[in-house]
């Protein structure tokens, strides 16, 4: 999580660092991703006007948990949904806001 202006941002990354899912105002997003990422019915595919594709992961109440990046094909979003399923279960939590505050304090910024 990263905090900017009091808002926490959640990013789910692949092992290579690529962001595969993101959410703003994400206090509960991590646990929701761990649970809901495993169910195909909780993903909603979207198509932009310029024929790019992305998906959102939704909670049981239909609230958006996270939004993917834009991709060029439906095959790409299917690949990324598989990655969200795999990484959602094993993801580690790093609160970058706390890390930033500690570094800022050490550097006396």
Note down, in words, how this protein is organized:
The chain is α+β, with helices and mostly antiparallel strands and 109 residues long. The strands form two sheets. Strands 1-2-3 form a three-stranded antiparallel β-sheet. β4 and β5 (53-58) form a beta hairpin. The relative contact order is 0.20. The chain has helices spanning 29-36, 74-90, 96-107, and strands at residues 2-4, 7-13, 19-24, 43-47, 53-58, 64-67.
Shape: globular
The side-by-side strand order for the widest beta sheet comes to 1-2-3
Q: What share of the residues lie within helices?
A: 25-40%
- What is the N-to-C order of secondary-structure elements (H for helix, E for strand)? EEEHEEEHH
Average residue-wise pLDDT: 78
The structure class reads: alpha+beta
Described by strand count, sense and barrel closure, the largest sheet is: 3 strands, antiparallel
- How far apart lie the N and C ends? 21 Å
**Strand residues, percent:** 25-35%
| Uncertain residue ranges | 1-5
Number of strands: 6
The number of distinct helices, counting runs of at least 4 residues, comes to 3
Q: State Rg.
A: 15 Å
Describe, in short, the structure shown.
With about 110 residues, the protein is α+β, with helices and mostly antiparallel strands. It has helices at about 30-35, 75-90, 95-105; strands spanning about 1-5, 5-15, 20-25, 45, 55-60, 65.
For this entry, give a set of tags.
109 residues; alpha+beta; three-stranded antiparallel β-sheet; 28% strand; disordered N terminus
